[in-house]
Amino acid sequence: MQVRRDVIKARKSCRIESEVENEISKFLEERINAGDFPSAVYLIAEKGEIVMQDALGLAVVEPERIEAWLDAVYDMASLTKVLVTGLLMAKLVEGGELYANDLVSKYLPEFGSEEKRGITVSEMLTHTSHLPAWKPLYLCVSDPEMVLAEIAKTVLGRVQNPVTYSDLNFITLGKIIERITGKDLDAAFTEIALGPLGLDDTGFRPLSKISILRIAASEKGNEFEKQTCIEKGYLDHGGENPVTASDASTGSDFRTPHSALRDYQIWGEVHDGNANFMGGVAGHAGLFSTAEETFKIAQQFLPRFSSILKPETCKLFRTNFTPEMNEHRSFAFQLASTPESAAGKLMSPQSFGHLGFTGTSLWIDPVKESVFILLTNRTHNHELPFANINSVRRRFHELAIGQLDANS
To answer: Is pTM, for the whole model, over 0.90?
Structure first.
């Protein structure tokens, strides 16, 4: 593929040159050189104002080399869970259209079985529903319309940790939003958030409105998911054929061709296999955005700056609903008080955040009204295993907070 370099050069540079040589940029440049990720865009804000930001490295290494800019668009991966699903669920709660303690089966009859009928919306929001962490739905059903029924028949993991982070929870919550609003998830998000906030570079299926030249590339193929499918017994050891015998632990027969396991460079479409199978729009993954537009959505979780939610609603995001459990969860978010949280040690315990598999992260400190955004594409141009960048995230937060404190 030949990239139109004139387009790249014509794009206005929005770097803040005075910050290029700061300690944060130097640290991230070191991690790029070490091979953790090919690019990084970060944004640090306090009390509604952007304080520091920079873009480093290459957003695309192959098939062409394209530099990262502050307006580069990244696959947000699981940040979709909070930026889209968490925000919309909070809006529905605020409007009295939904209550956190409602049974899921009230909105989704598919969850009316004896095993599932007691699951609440709150348990899905806090990942305490006992649904397993993940399942390759694209191997279990032949039609995306069958995804909800497949999740509803998935056997609960009663021996797993009380908080077990699960994509299945937020796929289901996305379906609840669609049932209540009567709109597709992307249409509901556009009406409630994108339109009112005036966001042009954020949304699902980005190629419908954004040039591929602005989008950071992801993994070549779905090799990580393929290996996970083999390890969990969904694919044979050759990785070519779905297992055909019924799996009693999940309640499924795996007979569907694994068409969602791509073998080409993923660039401009969602990396997550289940979200891709669902047409690029799902409650757990599929959102693309820039650092600055992510910041504008993040402001909606802070009471003084939100134009979408009321101040009392914003308290949900800093409230610990799982205080005695293995992980501290608020309304859709993880809390910084969680042991070994990627937030690091310097944020207030009420700080809340989320990570994305592609290498994205967002953390918000409601006490200091600070926002920390780090977007990378760690799955691009990198053989398995991908780098675990939680230590990078913690150091990024330490450096950022240090600079904020020094400037105060």
So the answer is: yes
CB 256 within 8 A of CB 135: no
The contacts of residue 300 (CB under 8 Å, 6+ apart) are 87, 193, 197, 306, 307, 308, 309
- Position 158 scores a pLDDT of 84
Buried b or exposed e, range 271-294, using 16+ CB within 10 angstroms? bbbbbbbbebbbbbbbbbbbbbbb
pLDDT at 251: 45
For residues 122 and 314, give the distance between their C-alpha atoms in angstroms, rounded to a whole number: 16
pLDDT in tens, 99-135: 999 999 999 999 999 999 999 999 999 999 999 999 9
**Residue 181 is encoded by which pair of tokens?**
């609003």
Q: Which two tokens stand for residue 67?
A: 């530099």
Tell me the CATH number of domain 5-76+289-407, given options 3.90.550, 3.40.710, 3.30.420, 3.40.50: 3.40.710
Which neighbouring-strand residues pair with 49? 46
For the domain 82-196, what is the CATH superfamily, name and number? Answer: DD-peptidase/beta-lactamase superfamily (3.40.710.10)
What are the backbone angles phi and psi of residue 394, rounded to the nearest 5°?
Answer: -65, -45
CA 159 centroid distance within chain: 26
Sign of CA dihedral 241, 245, 248, 251: positive
Say if CB 299 and CB 371 are below 8 A apart: yes
- CATH 3.40.710.10 residue window(s) in the chain: 82-196
SS3 182: coil
